[in-house]
Amino acid sequence: MRTGSPELLPDAYANFQEHMPIPSAFWPEYVGLFEDSDQEKALELAAESVEDYLIPELWERYVNMVLGRGYKIYEYGPQSDEVPPFKPIMSEADLEAVLQRALGRLRWHFTGSSRIWNLVLAYRISTGTTPEAIKTMYLERLQTPHSDIEETFSRFSSFITQNEAPDQYEKIMVAANKTYQLTLQRTEAMRRSESHRTAENVYSWLRGVSLADTTAEQLTVLERAVAQFPVSEEAWCKYIRYLKKQAAKLRHSREIRYEDVISVCRRGLRNCPHSSTIWLHLARAMERAAPADEVRDELYALLEHKALLQAPQEYTKSITGLLDFERRQFGLQGTNAGGLEALVNLALEQCKAVAPDYALPVITYCAQIRMEELASPKKAMELYESGLAAEKKRLKLASVDFQDTIAGAWSDYARFLTRHQQPGGKIAAAWKRASSESSTPSRIFFVQQWLEWESQSGVDVGRVEELVDEY
């Protein structure tokens, strides 16, 4: 992000931020561009810096800034520079909101929570917070596993020695020790988990995260995973699936809501704009939490994203997702049939223009809509036949997955012909094409479907045995 013209840097960062989140390493420079000349802008950017990823260092810089010490990180110890005093730059209420949010967001960050907690503790002590309130902070801290819990307990012991009567020391420390020992057991378990997490492997971060368990620790691990691997579709999808599971499970408690799912989906799309999987997660979550028109606007806007237009296979999956949404709306609200037909035509045109090599799933899905919702079997048959004929030429160059997609389209066509009582010879020919076009590993499945239809149609046993021998 360096340039020979420093005056262009603010615009360069702003333009970058419109398309992708700014990497954590660039935030100090970006905020620093305004720190001396426009403190309000610098504070606004510092607040933005903690929104995309859970990065303890960015939270520490932000808290230091609101405490009047600049967007910096200070090292403590005999070799450190002099640390400036606290001079908060916002109202007491606003400052308290930032401090509480920082403590809450980082509470379960096993390796990164201590510096923020220590920073807030130092500020509290400097402002004359009562010893009783400080004691409460320590006791709450001892309930949370963190990497240096032993040091926290030792410091708490020293604090009690300095601030409590000698006859109260043992009573307080006995109770605190019980809490400490229980938390220490969880800390050791988390240390073992931490030892498996590597910067090279996203799966080592996701291992052990159960979709069924509701814990703040798991949310933090997932946040850390997407911060460590921001362009990993797998990391974002695991996080989204976890939230969706919890949103459905906790829908009455409102602890995790579909609005939370939507927020993470949008963050995921900023990092993986080509991902149809995240795109479809967003669509289904929005259906549960937003009006249909708002969902529709969001989906159409996403389909125009440059990254998705440059990923044709992902684009066709997204088009299918939009069709699926409108199909459900048609069933739920009786959407105008002309509007649904217009969307089918638009989807076919877009796939032909953007993703001609991956259009078959969209073609077959549009045929299903014409058959089921629009009650146009003739148009559906024409679309099936024209779509399958066009794909026949591509078969020799197709991948295994693509072969099976074509075979699946022929099997859909065979079922379609069966439902509309077309001649048996035409149906048998469609099943034969499904079986012959499929990849070798999948062929047995399509042959079984074919045989099932033939047995139900009264074909003689000898013919069935002949088919089994052939495949």
Give an account of the 3D structure.
By secondary structure, the protein is an all-alpha fold. The chain is built from 24 helices and no strands. It has helices spanning 9-19, 27-35, 39-49, 56-66, 92-106, 113-126, 131-141, 149-163, 166-196, 202-206, 216-228, 233-249, 258-271, 276-289, 292-303, 306-309, 312-333, 337-354, 360-372, 377-392, 400-419, 424-437, 443-456, 461-470. It is elongated, with a radius of gyration of 30 Å. The two termini are 60 Å apart.
Short summary of the structure?
With 471 residues, this protein is an all-alpha fold.
Task: Give the key terms.
single chain; 471 residues; mainly alpha; 24 helices; 71% helix; elongated
By helix and strand content, what is the structural category? mainly alpha
Sequence stretches where pLDDT stays below 50 over 5 or more residues: none
Mean pLDDT: 85
What oligomeric assembly is this protein in?
single chain
Contiguous helical run count = 24
Terminal-residue CA separation: 60 Å
Q: Into which percent range does the helicity of residues fall?
A: over 70%
Rg = 30 Å
- The fraction of residues in strands falls at under 5%
Number of strands: 0
Query: How would you sum up the global shape?
Result: elongated
Order of helices and strands: HHHHHHHHHHHHHHHHHHHHHHHH
Major sheet: size, sense and barrel closure?
Answer: none
